[in-house]
Amino acid sequence: MSTIGQSGFESCIGKGTKVSGKLFFKAPAKIEGEVDGEITGEEIVIEAGAVVTARIAGKHISIAGNVSGEVVARERVELLPTARVRCSISTPSLALAEGAKFDGDCKMPRERVAA
To answer: Which of 65, 74, 81, 90 is most buried, judged by most C-beta within 10 A?
Structure first.
């Protein structure tokens, strides 16, 4: 479950909105519409019903909608029960809720071991 409350979002791509290109968010961002391109930020939430075809990079990424492309998270990726994901994922921590659909590759980089 996402750790950001409804009021914690400063940026939102709403339902009925279609965006194409490179998006960069400094504050927590919620995607409810359609995005094609590249999304970069710290906290990114792809809501149920959203359709995203993009490279998504961030610290924490939570997905409840449809995503195709590539997902790269520095800390955690969370696939919620309504998630439909066809992409490659790279993250040190992956949470996959019952009901989520994932078709792709997952790489989980190891932490460096002290010599």
So the answer is: 65
